[in-house]
Amino acid sequence: MKQFIIRRLLIMIPVFIGISMIIFGLIHSTPGDPYITMLDPNITEADREAMLNSIGYYDPLPVKYIKWIERAIKGDLGYSIRYKEPVADVISRRIGNTLLLSVTALVLSVLIAVPLGIVSATKQYSVFDYVATILALIGLSIPAFFFALGLIKVLAFDLGIFPISGIETTGANYTGMKRVLDVLHHMALPIIVLTFVQTASLMRYTRSSMLEVIQQDYIRTAKAKGLSERVVIYKHALRNAMISIVTLISLSLGGLLSGAVLTETVFVWPGMGTLVYQAILNRDYPLVMAGTMLLALCVLFANLLADIMYAVVDPRIRYE
Amino acid sequence: MANNIANKSSNISKVQGEEGTSLWKIGAKRLIKNKLAVFGIVVLSILIILSVLAPVITPYDRDETNLTNTYQKPSKEHWLGTDELGRDVFTRLIYGGRVSLSVGLVSTSISVIIGVLLGAIGGYYGKVVDNIIMRIVDIFMCFPFFIMAITIAAILGPSIWNVMIISGILSWPSIARIVRAEVMTVKEREFVEASKALGLTPIEIIFRHILPNVLAVVIVYTTLGIASGILSEAGLSFLGLGVKQPQPSWGNMLSAAQNLRSLRLHWWLWVPPGLLVFITILSINFLGDGLRDALDPKLKH
Amino acid sequence: MKRKLFSLLLVIAMISTLLVGCGGDKNATNNTPSNDAVKGSDKSVVRMALWSAPAGIFNPVLLGDDYDGAVAGLIYEPLVEMNPKFEFESGLAEKWEISEDSKSITFYLRKDVKWHDGEPFTSEDVKYTFEFISDPGYAGNKFSQISAISGANDYKEGKSESIKGIEVIDDHTIKITTDEVFAPFLDKIAGIDVIPQHIWSKIEVSKALESTDILRNPVGTGPFKFEKFVPDQYVTVVKNEEYWAGAPKIDSIVLQVVNQDTAQAQMLSGEIDFMQLSSMNPDDLALYEDAGIQIQEVFYTSFQQMGVNVRNPLLADKKVRQALTYAIDRQGIVDSLLHGHGNVANTTYPPFFWSYPGDEAINTYDYSPEKAIEILTKEVGWEYKDGKMYADGKPVKFSLVYPTGNKARELSAPVIQENLKNIGIELDLQIMEFATMVAKVKDEKAFDLFLLGSGIGADPDVRNNFSTEAIETGSNYMGYSNPELDKLFEEGVKYIEIEKRKPIYFEAAKIINEDMPVIFLYNWSEGRAIAPKLKGVQSFAFGNYYKVNEWYIEK
């Protein structure tokens, strides 16, 4: 097992380098530069060139990449062109907000989706199964941003139950419990959106993996041996189905993080998604690079986790 | 001896073929029994017919602006009213269907072609080839979709083709993994061993024997992929990087109405495209589900 | 197993809530932690909407974006300020005297002004501000604005220890001299916000952008003092009790980031007290009116244009550009896309500005596709048959690049496409993200036509847009050159008095109107939505904060 993990970690190195090279190449081939949008008539072309020179804009791409990776290995992610402060500082301020949203949504959707999926599977073709399946399909079919705007219109605008955007009441300077409640209040709508979408796919997945397990021979045997339905399903079947469900959960964390761009944009949530999106528009290369790499790394580790979990359960995989 | 081998070979393909057709037949029968899947097929067919026949159905020009007739409510002349430039919403909606549906189709085709090829090659050859391909898959799986899409869109510029390409090249890894896993199990089966023994080239084996066996999985994946292609286009349009005006797509029609004013006052601008995206994807999901139940032997009763 | 997993995830979620919950405060730079102006209900707070987060560079001569500017504008002040009538009023300088030869101005500074930290404000601060900008290590974008000062260039190149043209006469008198008469002197030089020497001289100018601590704890002389900056979310400023023109009547202002699509709801529900309206949609206005919200209409000196690449042989002839102008239903665009809040533009100056020569002096190119076709076929020699326009036997087709971002501009593109279709010209629309589009137009010059806003600011000197020199160094992306116009432009900046400049710019406006190096589309006005209780706001094209210390909340 140890060997397997070490091997997987070693494999991550070329993958990591590959990711960083592709992302670096793409980001630096976007047309324009960080200062091109300053159409201020007071800025002359010479000013612009001087500013570009100071950030190493005119270096050839491979040189830029080597410079970047050299510093990145030492833990120096560079200086944000727009925020004029270390990229690490900019990101550390945002990453918590994004995790807050995505982890909470993930936990909630697991809490909702797994039980629903199990019941749905054990009572296949029942009314409950149909209703749950159709609800899940609705969740999969509705564009997240559209759903979000609809919620804002009804719950925030018409009914005024929730704030429209942001992460806290600005200028209120709440502290302690009051502040936590305030943040929770602001979180509600984005959480509803993310959870609904996430629950939909997770529920369907739980249902089908449960179905798969239920139909396997050993479950039938267990049933034939006269074990009660309850014991069979919750003791034997669920345990096996959980493996693939947990795998999916770790995989979906990556998706949740990168898919947050849309939700964060709609709700003006100060997270990673909007940060990187704005950074791309501003051509803030060091920031885009670090932000994108961080998101990619999250996915990479989530995938690794999934692989390991799978291998723990199914020894054949290790020797693949 | 030679005769014998030839005989054996034809036997194999015959067995294969019979198994294949019967599987498809059973599948089709099962699919038709599935009410939701049939609903999906019917709705999708109607939508496809509508968008193909768009020029015949509507008397208006797609991009015809009329600045004196903006934001009109639905009426006899304009079934779904007019938009901010006085263009007929119904007309743009059915033309938009062309764009949205073809974005879904083409982007999925791109990802299926890349995914199936790489997955099959990796699964069949194994070893170094597989290792390299799987690392590429790992790399692509780690890319955050929207962020990469935004970056590529900035390079390529927004257009319908670029949306297809972006969505296609960012979503092939999952199909590659599925195909690879299937190929690896199919590879071990006797008929493939036999074909090898008969001296068929790997390409022949992959195309004639292995791919038909993973077709079921691919079809199911493709249906669902189309749905996510349409959703991605809508999302990209929302961020202003999708299909561009004046060409309508359901995604950019939706995002044009994203402000509260339109949400409040001009329901005819956002309800129809929103509803169509929803219904289309719902239908595709129904169909995909039905196909999975019908084609996946594991779920046989 | 299931329960364990859930509780684990739950714990993670709670921890991250706490982390975020505490994190915000820790990161916020807090100037006066005890002075919590917003909490008490008897304090008056005004909340203003920002569409995007300030970067946190609250130094008026270093900052590069509007949102930082919106913050700095409340904290810092210039020597002279422009008022809503486009006249100069005293700011930190109580009065000023222009020398006989118009080349130097003596500023008499106010004696009762203190920096927010209690230090007195003197002429040394003014001198330091200009030296800061002229420093070789200066990384901001204001130098070209003051480079006319005698000796500024020498100082920048390290050839001198001080700027020759800046002379401190005493603590509260300073004289600034330029080499040549510099017409926009008051606007460009005296309009620069002054920064405190005792704070910024502590660090090297070249390190200024890295001094996050100083950047994010700005000290100015203005009506409001900086209080708190929560990155990506909001900035709070509180009133300066000792403000020279009288302490502000409101206690604090919160500038907060909101989503432009949903801000309207926040305005209506009273969460926001002030925001810019990019659209004057009558439906919106009616809604605001019902809620008692005040609307101020602000007329801009800027215009939207369709730039023409005159390097394209088909577009090199001004007759073609004139015909295109006739072919576009610009009045229709103003009426429908701007809801009538704007006017068709025909030259680079808006009708209300002093350098506009008057409607009768210029051609107004009233919408007429027939006339367009007539010019193209009779005067240019193109051929029009079966609804298509041909030049030298080939169908005429142009590409139009335009950026995302401005709704009315985005929507005008398909209208222009339809309009040109009516005279048989095909237009290929290419919308792109702003930076990409500008790179295409500015660096690659890969376009026929482009849409972009442009402005004259407060001075009619538009050399940067239309002079021959600006093809290389400015925003003359069209590649347009007219020696006669160049000469007028040079002449125009030689006088400070408006009356002497008027005839020169009238002539320039007429030439631009005739040549149409860009096809002028429209001048527009935008709105400011102001909460019913907030009084005293006077927004105009160059600022929202005029006499902000006199704003008050009606009880």
From TrEMBL, chain A:
<feature type="transmembrane region" description="Helical">
    <location>
        <begin position="9"/>
        <end position="28"/>
    </location>
</feature>
<feature type="transmembrane region" description="Helical">
    <location>
        <begin position="289"/>
        <end position="313"/>
    </location>
</feature>
<feature type="transmembrane region" description="Helical">
    <location>
        <begin position="99"/>
        <end position="118"/>
    </location>
</feature>
<dbReference type="Pfam" id="PF00528">
    <property type="entry name" value="BPD_transp_1"/>
</dbReference>
<feature type="transmembrane region" description="Helical">
    <location>
        <begin position="245"/>
        <end position="269"/>
    </location>
</feature>
<keyword id="KW-1133">Transmembrane helix</keyword>
<dbReference type="Pfam" id="PF19300">
    <property type="entry name" value="BPD_transp_1_N"/>
</dbReference>
<protein>
    <submittedName>
        <fullName>ABC transporter permease</fullName>
    </submittedName>
</protein>
<keyword id="KW-0812">Transmembrane</keyword>
<dbReference type="InterPro" id="IPR000515">
    <property type="entry name" value="MetI-like"/>
</dbReference>
<feature type="transmembrane region" description="Helical">
    <location>
        <begin position="130"/>
        <end position="152"/>
    </location>
</feature>
<keyword id="KW-0813">Transport</keyword>
<keyword id="KW-1003">Cell membrane</keyword>
<feature type="domain" description="ABC transmembrane type-1">
    <location>
        <begin position="95"/>
        <end position="306"/>
    </location>
</feature>
<dbReference type="InterPro" id="IPR045621">
    <property type="entry name" value="BPD_transp_1_N"/>
</dbReference>
TrEMBL record, chain B:
<dbReference type="InterPro" id="IPR050366">
    <property type="entry name" value="BP-dependent_transpt_permease"/>
</dbReference>
<dbReference type="InterPro" id="IPR000515">
    <property type="entry name" value="MetI-like"/>
</dbReference>
<protein>
    <submittedName>
        <fullName>ABC transporter permease</fullName>
    </submittedName>
</protein>
<feature type="transmembrane region" description="Helical">
    <location>
        <begin position="160"/>
        <end position="179"/>
    </location>
</feature>
<dbReference type="Pfam" id="PF12911">
    <property type="entry name" value="OppC_N"/>
</dbReference>
<keyword id="KW-0472">Membrane</keyword>
<feature type="transmembrane region" description="Helical">
    <location>
        <begin position="132"/>
        <end position="154"/>
    </location>
</feature>
<dbReference type="InterPro" id="IPR053523">
    <property type="entry name" value="Oligopeptide_permease_AppC"/>
</dbReference>
<keyword id="KW-0812">Transmembrane</keyword>
<feature type="transmembrane region" description="Helical">
    <location>
        <begin position="267"/>
        <end position="288"/>
    </location>
</feature>
<feature type="transmembrane region" description="Helical">
    <location>
        <begin position="36"/>
        <end position="57"/>
    </location>
</feature>
<feature type="transmembrane region" description="Helical">
    <location>
        <begin position="210"/>
        <end position="231"/>
    </location>
</feature>
<feature type="domain" description="ABC transmembrane type-1">
    <location>
        <begin position="97"/>
        <end position="288"/>
    </location>
</feature>
<dbReference type="Pfam" id="PF00528">
    <property type="entry name" value="BPD_transp_1"/>
</dbReference>
<dbReference type="InterPro" id="IPR025966">
    <property type="entry name" value="OppC_N"/>
</dbReference>
Automatic annotation (TrEMBL), chain C:
<dbReference type="InterPro" id="IPR000914">
    <property type="entry name" value="SBP_5_dom"/>
</dbReference>
<dbReference type="InterPro" id="IPR023765">
    <property type="entry name" value="SBP_5_CS"/>
</dbReference>
<protein>
    <submittedName>
        <fullName>Peptide-binding protein</fullName>
    </submittedName>
</protein>
<dbReference type="Pfam" id="PF00496">
    <property type="entry name" value="SBP_bac_5"/>
</dbReference>
<feature type="domain" description="Solute-binding protein family 5">
    <location>
        <begin position="88"/>
        <end position="462"/>
    </location>
</feature>
<feature type="signal peptide">
    <location>
        <begin position="1"/>
        <end position="20"/>
    </location>
</feature>
<keyword id="KW-0813">Transport</keyword>
<dbReference type="InterPro" id="IPR039424">
    <property type="entry name" value="SBP_5"/>
</dbReference>
<keyword id="KW-0732">Signal</keyword>
<comment type="similarity">
    <text>Belongs to the bacterial solute-binding protein 5 family.</text>
</comment>
<dbReference type="InterPro" id="IPR030678">
    <property type="entry name" value="Peptide/Ni-bd"/>
</dbReference>
